Amino acid sequence: MEELHTTRTELLQRRTQIELAQQGRDLLEKKRDALLVEFMKIMEAVLELGANLRRVAADAHYALAIAQAVDGAINLQSAALATKGEITVDISGTHIMGVPIPKVAKRDVRRSASERGYGITGISSRIDEVAEKFEDELNIIIEMAAIETKLKRLGAEIQKTRRRVNALDQVVIPTLTKQVRYISMALDERSREDLFRLKRVKKTLEKNKVTA
Prior knowledge:
By secondary structure, this protein is mainly alpha-helical. The protein has one domain (8-207): Helix Hairpins, CATH 1.10.287. The protein has three helices and two strands, in the order H-H-E-E-H. It has helices at residues 8-71, 73-82, 125-211; strands at 90-96, 99-105.
């Protein structure tokens, strides 16, 4: 624990520390509030995407059920094996209020029938529709994953900033304020003692002067 000296220099230092801590707290509060605004905007986008994803997923599974019933599982499996491929995602970085955020470039994964790899003549329009619906679903999943990553980073930074604000408000500033009060009281007490001693010396000198 740092030693506390009851001097005027120490008093000035503690008061300066309080001012700096208050300024730091104010800046952190502004940062926290700005991050919260951004967080809520992204949260709205996530909720909207989530609703859209549920709708698109329902459409995709309905189209799959129809294709299975009409075209059969073997034809679906054959088309699925033929259309396998890779999905590339471009990831870069950006900053929001100094917080590093991964940025995923949105790419449309939807392909034409000829790009999927299966023979067009041997595949029904129903199977094509299944592929389109699930590609639409995949597009939303990729977009949602990127936004949720951003949301998690912002949430973690908001919690971190909130803890720092609380530490300044509940620990650092109150502790420095108590120290300032203690040093002030000690200096006042010392000043009274010095004044009392001076009065005693003055009285003694006056008494000696009279008797002389």
